[in-house]
Amino acid sequence: LLPTFTNVGTLVGVYRIEAAHSKVLCVFSNTNPTGPYRGAGRPEASYVIERLIDEAADEIDMDPAELRRRNVLSSEEMPYKTALTFSYDCGEFNKNMEQALQISDYNSFAERKTEAKNRGMLRGIGIANAIEAAAAPGPDFAEIRFSTDGTATILMGTKNQGQGHETMYKQIAGEFLGVDSEDIRVVDGDTDQVAFGLGTMGSRSMVIGGTSLFLAAEKIVKKGTKIAAHLLEASEQDIEFESGNFKISGTDKSITLKEVAKASFLPAKIPDGTEPGLYETGSFSPDENTFPNGCHVVEVEIDPETGRVVIVNYTMVDDVGNIINPKTLKGQIQGGIAQGVGQILMEEVAYDEKSGQLISGSLMDYAMPRASDMCLSLEIISNSVPTKLNPLGVKGGGEAGTVGAMPGVMNAIVNALSQVGVSQFEMPATPNRIWQAIDEARTAQ
Questions:
Q1: What is the pLDDT of residues 217-234, one digit of tens each?
Q2: DSSP result, 115-159
Q3: How big is the chain by its Cα radius of gyration, in Å?
Q4: N or C: which end of the chain has fewer CB within 10 A?
């Protein structure tokens, strides 16, 4: 359902397509489903539109970059209602592409192509302007619970799977509350302690979980202000909160949030009628999807004698809105790119044609990308355009790499193979399949 219905809206990509029609043919099968794959429909939609643009450019003998340039939506057109259900709230798609083309030295590709040809290699370049619908409407939960010693526990409904959620949630709490990271403990996905949560999927954790945490932090500051005013013998209206300190405006009198948290458990130190303790919850559900986007420019070299593909250059300009942690984001994007590369170059669920027996049932038979399959020249640049759909301005980054990697790599492969007469090619681009395609094209010629 995810590839065929949920994300069919992004089939129009980031382009000014005024009318679109989609027809989906579904075939019932007992073979492996496609739903669990990273991106869950977004890479497939991006693949379709970006391959079509390259084919159209070839048909009219136009540079694929120029065809995209003439049709890509500008930031002045935002928000933009597409012909297929979605409304893009913000983005600088044209800037993403121009920056990626410049960084990748696209204009000098012909020289590199000639140099490769002199070595007997086929060099190709591919572009993909990717966009995805992420963090779909649906609630999640966060709680900030201070202890009597002034330290805090953050309880989240999302579940970390290696993305570094603990680091980012501590950053959000630290940014808005001024609490040191060593004074924060993160608990996620524990149904014995956390009220509820829909989990981690669809690039929703920072958008929905992070915003829930932000809303809980706002409540902490509001209650803390009341207690701080009592402790400082001032009016609540005269209290300012900044960098973990409650301060009386225009004076040097202040008290830390940690001290307020400790005092909150002592009835003698809090205002009459105030509930003891400092713990608040937050829950958030967005009204609409966010739309992470970016441009991928990929260069490959193919050895026509063996069919082996080597990715020689990879450039990506990415927009996931405001960035919470640049390092963890880059790791997410690198992992997403690797997964897209694996899908194009080698991953295949294979069945025996006669018996229907699955013959790629383990990692001994199902090829996955290794470090040697990746590109040493992998440059990831951020062009952050904050969304107004949530207070943090984030769009989600967990699947962004895969969405653009698949069409970007395949466009580069087909571009390289076009030199020997191959115009159509289906994934996976294994050496054997590429060698066969080259051999068939040469025989036909």
A1: 999 999 999 999 999 999
A2: HHHHTT-EEEEEEEEEE--BS-S--EEEEEEE-TTS-EEEEESS-
A3: 26
A4: C
